[in-house]
Amino acid sequence: AQMTVNPKLMQRIRQDVQSMHAYAIQDSVGMVKLDAMENPFGLPLELQQQLGERLGKLALNRYPDGRVNDLRTALAQYADMPEDHDIMLGNGSDELISLLAMACDVPGATILAPLPGFVMYAMSAQLQGLQFVGVDLTPDFELDEPAMLAAIERHQPAIVYLAYPNNPTANLWDDGAIERIVQAAPGLVVIDEAYQPFSSRSYLDRLGQHPNVLLMRTLSKFGLAGIRLGYLMGPAALVHEIDKVRPPYNVSVLNAEAALFALEHAAVYEAQAADLRAERALLLDALAMLPGVKAWRSDANMVLVRVPDARAAFEGMKRQGVLVKNVSTMHPLLANCLRLTVGTADENLRMLAALQASL
């Protein structure tokens, strides 16, 4: 029997937290899992054994040490970080997003982002007690530049998030619009490049031109969603301030070593990303042939589609053992939309067959 919690005790827990929904993770046992933009490829057996040996030798009885700095150096080199910039690590990008809200929690601070977008931008603001301002994209998921500039002027946000490409719409926005937003922003602009391995463009070459821009990336889409490792690059003086709110041992020795190992074998992951980009092109071609389905162009390892009835299609696909993400209720602009992760050739064929049968 479940123990009932004393109502007086519940009064000690924030009312807004009690009325929130926890981030839902779908049960995927026995399913073709195409709901969370994971890389579908595991490590080759030989590399599994090498990694296992390395992890087995770690001093798990000690707190993380300088090895984390080796990882910072390796990531800075891998990402080609500009001069006089620094890098900070997070337990996934999710933690970095929370830490940014904490660091920028000055009285009256606002966090601003286009909608639909990544749910953690708004959630981090709410949990930190900050105001969140969402600015709707256009019906074709482009930045509404006049609305963004008006909202920046009005709210003077501490942080503006721009995902490049965006989740769940998978598109890259107009570079001119991004530059004008960066110039208008009075606070930080965080360019979130979670899907960079699949993207045709990066903001990296412009990073050094702005004193207020931070570039955030993750190893999740690189192929390591399970190790929870995100990183943030920006002007050193700025990163040093944000780094003060980071828990001292936020990246475990296991996570750090697995990430270093992956960077040493970056070519394996680059081949996987190339494979997924090729599969994405085939998937988009196949979706274009399905009557009643609209698919948007993608620069990520996901494709947003609009179907006649998202709920029926989602449930139908689930009954056939294929799990995708029903995003149709997340925002009015996403009416009847599903988000499909790009999987292996076989997974994509099964997904297409399930979708076709469920329309």
Structural overview:
- With 359 residues, this protein is an alpha/beta fold.
- The protein has helices at 7-10, 15-18, 45-56, 67-79, 92-103, 119-127, 145-155, 175-184, 204-207, 220-224, 236-243, 253-264, 266-288, 310-319, 345-358, and strands spanning 32-33, 85-90, 110-115, 131-136, 159-163, 188-192, 213-218, 230-235, 294-295, 302-306, 322-323, 325-326, 337-341.
- The strands form three sheets. It has a seven-stranded mixed sheet with strand order 2-8-7-6-5-3-4.
- The chain is globular and about 55 Å long.
- The chain starts with 6 loop residues before the first helix and ends with a helix.
- The relative contact order is 0.16.
- The mean pLDDT is 96.
List keywords for this structure.
alpha/beta, 7-stranded mixed sheet, 4-stranded antiparallel sheet
Provide a concise account of the structure shown:
By secondary structure, the chain is α/β, with parallel strands linked by helices. It contains 15 helices and 13 strands.
Reconstruct the topology from this structure.
Elements: H1 7-10, H2 15-18, E1 32-33, H3 45-56, H4 67-79, E2 85-90, H5 92-103, E3 110-115, H6 119-127, E4 131-136, H7 145-155, E5 159-163, H8 175-184, E6 188-192, H9 204-207, E7 213-218, H10 220-224, E8 230-235, H11 236-243, H12 253-264, H13 266-288, E9 294-295, E10 302-306, H14 310-319, E11 322-323, E12 325-326, E13 337-341, H15 345-358
Parallel strand pairs: 1-11, 3-4, 3-5, 5-6, 6-7
Antiparallel strand pairs: 2-8, 7-8, 9-10, 10-13, 12-13
- Computed CA radius of gyration, to the nearest angstrom: 21 Å
Residue stretches low in confidence (pLDDT < 50, at least 5 long) are: none
Strand order of the largest sheet: 2-8-7-6-5-3-4
Written as H for each helix and E for each strand, in order along the chain, the element string is HHEHHEHEHEHEHEHEHEHHHEEHEEEH
Structural class category = alpha/beta
Largest sheet: 7 strands, mixed
Oligomer: single chain
Mean pLDDT over the full residue set: 96
Kindly estimate the percentage of residues that lie in beta strands according to DSSP: 15-25%
N- to C-terminal separation?
43 Å
If helices are DSSP runs of H or I spanning 4 or more residues, what is the number of helices? 15
In total, how many beta strands? 13
Q: Estimate percent helicity.
A: 40-55%
Shape label? globular
